[in-house]
């Protein structure tokens, strides 16, 4: 969904500042290459009318299809938490997208990119627990400063579950799209970094 909203087609760099388990990056590459991701387990296999034979035929069609491999620009993820980074690296490896996605176990504030402008995505903490919101104000201020100082001309998409915090980015939104993220009322917010 996000890649369709941003119009990202692999021709410009894509960066996920807090990539977590790598979901945005994997979905972005998968959607752009038009490659379906096949999981090991699906809940519909438990349905009473599930037909294993039809399922196997469809999986076989996908696995034997030839997908056009485009030349991609940089696709980068940063994740500071070592365990979550390892999970993301494993998820990316299992999809076969390691050749497309670079992932770094470091603070994104240490990220140095010298390339044409592209798209940055971020799903930062929302501060839903008592007292967390005040602790996150400085983080949002820092994200805004970092982006303005290092990524002028880039597009920034933020998944926000807390409109009170997004004002601390000190950036002007150009598009706001309401979504639900795990039952939390959220907004995808697009900023043009100046």
Q: Which parts are unreliable, with pLDDT below 50 for 5 consecutive residues or more?
A: none
Distance between the termini: 25 Å
Oligomer: single chain
Name the strands of the widest sheet in spatial order: 3-2-1-4-5-7-6
Q: What series of H and E elements makes up the topology? A: HEHHEHEEHEHEE
The biggest sheet, with number of strands, parallel, antiparallel or mixed sense and barrel status, is: 7 strands, mixed
- Rg is 18 Å
Residue-averaged pLDDT: 88
Structural class: alpha/beta
Please tally the helical runs, counting DSSP H or I stretches of 4 or more residues.
6
* Shape estimate: globular
Total number of beta strands: 7
Strand content is 15-25%
What level of helicity do the residues show?
A: 25-40%
Structure keywords:
7 strands; globular; 6 helices; alpha/beta; 194 residues; seven-stranded mixed β-sheet
What does this structure look like?
The protein is of the alpha/beta class and 194 residues long. The chain contains six helices and seven strands, in the order αβααβαββαβαββ. A seven-stranded mixed sheet has the order 3-2-1-4-5-7-6. β4 (119-122), α5 (132-150) and β5 (155-160) form a beta-alpha-beta unit. The two termini are 25 Å apart.
Précis, in short:
Helix content is 34%, strand content 20%. It has 194 residues and is an alpha/beta fold.
Layout of strands and helices, then pairs:
Elements: H1 2-6, E1 14-16, H2 23-33, H3 52-64, E2 75-78, H4 82-95, E3 101-104, E4 119-122, H5 132-150, E5 155-160, H6 163-166, E6 173-181, E7 184-192
């Amino acid at each position: 969904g996000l890649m369709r909203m941003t119009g990202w087609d692999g021709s410009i760099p894509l960066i996920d500042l807090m990539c977590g388990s790598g979901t945005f990056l994997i979905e972005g590459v998968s959607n752009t290459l038009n490659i379906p991701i096949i999981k090991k387990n699906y809940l519909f296999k438990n349905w009473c009318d599930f037909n294993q034979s039809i399922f196997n035929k469809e999986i076989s069609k996908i696995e034997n299809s030839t997908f056009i491999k485009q030349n991609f620009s940089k696709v980068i993820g940063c994740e500071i938490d070592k365990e979550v980074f390892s999970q993301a690296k494993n998820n990316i490896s299992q999809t076969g997208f390691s050749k497309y996605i670079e992932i770094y176990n470091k603070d994104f504030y240490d990220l140095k990119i010298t390339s044409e402008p592209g798209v940055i995505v971020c799903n930062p903490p929302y501060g839903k627990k008592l007292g967390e919101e005040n602790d996150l104000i400085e983080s949002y201020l820092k994200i805004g400063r970092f982006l303005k100082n290092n990524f002028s001309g880039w597009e920034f998409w933020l998944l926000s579950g807390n409109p009170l915090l997004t004002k601390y980015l000190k950036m002007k939104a150009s598009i706001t799209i309401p979504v639900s993220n795990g039952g939390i009322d959220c907004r995808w917010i697009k900023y043009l970094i100046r």
